[in-house]
Amino acid sequence: MLVFETKKELQKKLMALWSEDNLGLVPTMGALHEGHASLIRKALDENTHVIVSIFVNPTQFNNTEDLEKYPQTLSADVALIKSISDDILIFTPTINEVYGKLVTHNVYDFQGLDKVMEGRFRDNHFNGVGTIVELLLTLIKPTRAYFGEKDFQQLRIIQKLTKLRNIPVKIIGCPIVREPHGLAMSSRNERLNMELRQKAGFIYETLIAAKDKFGTENALQIKKWAIKRFKRHKDLDLEYIEIVDIETLVPAEQKTKNKKYRAFIAVYAGGVRLIDNIALN
Ligand code: PAF
Description:
Helices cover 40% and strands 20% of the residues. The strands form 2 sheets. It has a 6-stranded parallel sheet with strand order 1-4-3-2-5-6, sandwiched between helices. A 3-stranded antiparallel sheet has the order 7-8-9, covered by helices on one side. By secondary structure, it is of the alpha/beta class. A hairpin with a 2-residue loop joins strand 8 and strand 9. The mean pLDDT is 97. The protein has 2 domains: 2-174, HUPs (Rossmann fold), CATH 3.40.50.620; 187-276, Pantoate-beta-alanine ligase, C-terminal domain (Pantoate--beta-alanine Ligase, Chain: A,domain 2, 2-Layer Sandwich), CATH 3.30.1300. The protein has 11 helices and 9 strands. The site of pantoate (PAF) has 10 residues, from strand 2 and helix 7.
């Protein structure tokens, strides 16, 4: 297991691997869980070499408290990666190594993909994500890069980013992994107590019910129904529910034949922000 902290050391190592054109990257912010493990396993299945980056990227946090409270568990993360395979490379740079003195994000035109849902509630979040992902992709030059569908909007934006910037990489989306009560796995779940963690299964129950309703009801009816349902729940505070076209992420008014839709939810549970989504058709 090799751990690199500087870009220079890492690039020296990667130089020998690039010619093989078979390098998988799993970018993470650490606090690794089964969801990340599934991305790492998929990357191992599909690539000869795999690198996991662990970096809590300050420019994608619009809320300082969220950044400060973000769990940092480096030795457990390294142990988890090692338990999957001893052959994985790990990149854990400092903020200074990544950004130098100017800790700031680029500004992208994601053609509207960043104007809805997470983008509406988290100022510049996707500019921050774009900045770090562009930096990692151009530094590491992976053949494939793996992202979870829990952050489906992020996944679509990263696909757009690689087109906008002509970065030759395959962006691969991987299915959401869930806790036993249905809550989508997330590093933020660590901040919930056991009771809330179980109660938060309500989010996925709502998404499944929304999927059922999608056959017979329109998007507006389903949203109204879900908003009412969350109002009655005393521990979960709904921030948004949206039903959108998965290509444009534009909220759906009418269903159009041959288009695919997904429902998205963001919720606060005991001060912790949770997101989830489901394919509707
Ligand atoms: O999804 C995440 O963990 C982060 O947004 C990412 C893609 C690693 C960029 O910091």
